[in-house]
Amino acid sequence: MTSVRDREDDDRRELPVRPTDEDPLAASGSEILGGPIGRRARIGGYRWWNPMRVMVLVVIGMFALGMAQKASCYSSAWFQAGDPQYIHACYSDIPHLYSQRGFGSDLVPYFDRIPDTISGSSDLHYLEYPVLTGLFMEVASWVTPHGSDQHSAQAYWIANSAMLLICAVVLVVCVARTNRRRPWDGLLVALSPALALTATINWDLFAVALTAAGLMLWSRGRPGAAGVLIGLATAAKLYPVLLLGALFLLCLRAGRLRSFGATLGGAIAAWLVVNVPVMLLAPHGWAQFYTFSRTRPTDYGSLWLIISERAQTPLNSVNAYATALMLLLCAAIAGLSLYAPRRPRVGQLAFLVVAALVLSNKVYSPQYVLWLLPLAVLARPRWRDLLIWQGAEVLYFLGIWMRLAYVTGSKHHGLTADAYHVAVGLHLLGLLYLCALVVRDMLLPQYDVLRQDGEDDPAGGVLDGAQDVFVLGPVPHEPKHAAQHAGYDAGTRHPAP
């Protein structure tokens, strides 16, 4: 028989979570708007001003601020010799690659070769981006007046920015809808300074939006559709494939391998549909991305760059070192996922595996922070912790451009190697800080923000409330309310396979 307290707990779980009720920093920040929302406030009283519309407007505003931050480069610095675009911290790959990758000359990606204008050699090569990102770049060129002048490159950046703005809106909407009770978590993405600064540097936001959409579909108990989105995201950027490893471990622990099979099948099918035509018709152009990734040397932002420059010797086997570290970190994450007293949430494990890639990779471009942004919000939706991490990322954003200004400029304005190493170290420490909090939440679930009110994994889809069937550590106590979920698919309440 259900007690009055249990009924009150169940009723409370059906209400949306208000950030000012549970987050001290959000409550303090709300003072400039009149303080935390009151107990008698009319939630949803104004139908138009719902959380989703507010967050969409906020992310559009932040995206516009990011574009304004690039204004000095848009007007002249992208097209000047020397270091102005680095001094003003407004660099973007997009206008440069418009001419350097043949979009202004009507060359077809993966089929037509282009000169290597970056290194100054006469060698020809193909576009070094995954197929779906190449399609994104090509679509933007279709609406750009072709030519090799400054105005065409500016128009190409504007066209890409408009498309990336749509991706930013999709990203915020998907994060807000992944956990039905926490729609305001999307505001952590919409107000992100890292998003504003890095959204138009490159095309990563496209893959990030697809990944977020896949996780939203997973949270709604649609593993096959989620797999399709993850497969498409992997066709745009390689990192989303790591989410399949995280989902496999969680499904293994919960005995939901058939659901994982649907996700894996959908991902493989979607990736093949996008890649096979180019693979067959232009095999050398298709392989360029993978060849470039394998042969790329140690580059800016990585742990290996610090080691190499401090030791004053090149790391000839950096691929082996990076792979070994990545495998070691993944093994530790796998052990943690199967040993933790409660099954980790999807957001937690997804964040850790992508963070492992960032920490071990031989390059870290400033826009890579976008890979982690939605996963960090799902893993640890706390304003203070996310702002500490993003503060370190903003410092690195400034540090990389000041280092490039020092290297490329004749006057050496910017950061020396030692100062730049400090910036890289701060970026690594900021990420490790957030990883440590997520690991603590996994080992000590009472610190987990989402589990303090008795929930299991509200973004877990078929995993939410599922009982563990494969655990390496001591058999945990069955989570509260798990019994009502056991043997059922989340969101459908039909018997699970």
Features:
497 residues; mainly alpha; two-stranded antiparallel ribbon; 22 helices; 2 strands; disordered C terminus
Output the helix-strand order: HHHHHHHEEHHHHHHHHHHHHHHH
Main sheet properties: 2 strands, antiparallel
* H/I helix tally: 22
Shape field = globular
Structure description:
It comes from Actinacidiphila acidipaludis. Keywords: Cell membrane, Membrane, Transferase, Transmembrane, Transmembrane helix. It is found in: Cell membrane. It holds the Pfam family GT87. This is Glycosyltransferase 87 family protein. With 497 residues, the chain is an all-alpha fold. It has one domain. The chain contains 22 helices and 2 strands. Strands 1-2 form a two-stranded antiparallel ribbon. Helix 21 runs antiparallel to helix 22. The protein is globular and about 65 Å long. The protein starts with a helix and ends in a 54-residue tail after the last helix. The C terminus is likely disordered.
